[in-house]
Structures are given as structure tokens and as C-alpha cells.
Amino acid sequence: MNEETKTVPASGAKQLAITVTYDTNPYKQVMKADWGFATLITGTEKTILFDTGGRYFFNIMRRLRIDPNSIEVVVLSHIHGEHIHELSVFLQQNPNVTVYLPESVPEKLKDNARNYGATIVGVKGALQICEDVYSTGQLGTVIKEHSLILRTDKGLVVITGCAHPGIVNVLNTAKELMQDDILLVMGGFHDENYPLPLEWATKDRIIEIISEFKQLGVRYVGPCHCAGEHVRSLFKRYFGRKYISVSTGKIVTLTDL
Asked: 20 to 30 A from 195, CA-CA: which of 45, 92, 96, 248?
């Protein structure tokens, strides 16, 4: 574990808000729905953009009245295009950010971001990004990815891009690192046993993963992006009122949880 993660505060962020700026499904009719994912996190020490979505990203940012210059940190979950598509365009507008990305991503991408003036941090092990915000560290083998952990006074919020290393592996890592309960899991869900999204797994396997969520004490779930409608419907059935419908334009706050 990184030195910075050894001392964990007793409480966490109290004013957290997560705005979905890119997803496969639209929350409002004026929002574009497209393959990809991005969220804006406010209420923590720094304003954070997690992933940069696809081609409609800035159109959606404008509709949501999000100023790119308000963002201080960019976290890229993994190398796939629908998660990093608009990075260069974003850095043209706001290069004064620190970009956290898996150490394994090609040097060309890192150098390109540096050329805009951004500070680049290649993530290998778990680390603290700012107060109450942590990276799981780079996980997985074929597709390496890191996820975001937000510490709140209600528990942990875990945000994933696709969770290629396996969503249950990601959650076990978060719990081990933070020694706290998981309040919400949100993002794309993959199973380590399948090279494709969890949607391609059998119904029995999906239900098995839902059971593992329950055993881990996960209170709220927000599967989106690559999770697929079949997976979303099963999670909704088993989590009921603690299922969060996540889609482009949706804002999730601690008062919702």
C-alpha cells in the first residue's frame, strides 16, 4: 500500500455530488446517449472528472453548465476510447490539472497530455489523490484499470469505468484498503471470468455476483455504461429501492443515499 493510504481519516466527505456527464442512457431528453462513461465529482477537497467520455462530451458539459476550468483533477480509469476520447480537447481548454491514469497506458498518451501542460501521475499501487479520495491502484492483467474510492461519512463510494479486473475484485480491494463499509457502487460492471461485459454472463452468474455484493455489505448500486439492460434489471430486482438509475445528466448526492 502507498504511504499516503496508511492513515485513513475517521470520517469523510459530507457534501458529495456525482454528476453523470456521459453514459449509454439519457436521464433527460435533451441529453445525448452514447457508448462511454464520465462523471464529475464535487464536494471533495478537489473537483474531479472521472473519465472523459466520447464525442458528445462537451455538448453535454455545456448543457449541464459545467465549466471545464472548475476541474482540478482528471482520473482516467483505463485506455479504452470511450473513457478517454475527449482528453485532448479537454486539456486544450484546461491544461492546469493533474491527470491520474494507469501506469501501463502507452507513453504516447502521457506525453501528449504533458505537452498540453498537464501534470501526469502514472498509478501503479493504491494511492491517495486528495482528502477523502483514493485510487484502488492498477488492477487486472490483460486490461489494466484503476477505480476511484470516495470516503464519505456514510461509507465508501466506489466508481468504476468498466471494472475489467472484475467488479467483485474491485470491491474487495476497496474494502481491504479503506477498512470501511461500501455505501454505493457505480459504473460499468465486468466479471473477471468473462472478457466481455457482465451482460454476456449467464443469469445464474449475474445473480451470484449480486449475492457477493450483498455479502460485502454494499448498500446502493448504480450499474451503468457497459453493464447492460439485463444486468441493470436484475440488480434493480434484488436491490429494490436501493437501486440507483444512472444515466447521462443524473446527479447523485449523499442525501439520495
From this structure: 248
